[in-house]
Amino acid sequence: MPSSVIASMSYDAAMHVLRIRFVSGLIYNYKEVPEKVFKALKTSASKGAFLNQHIKGKYEFEKINELH
Question: Does a structural domain hold residue 1?
Answer without folding.
Answer: no
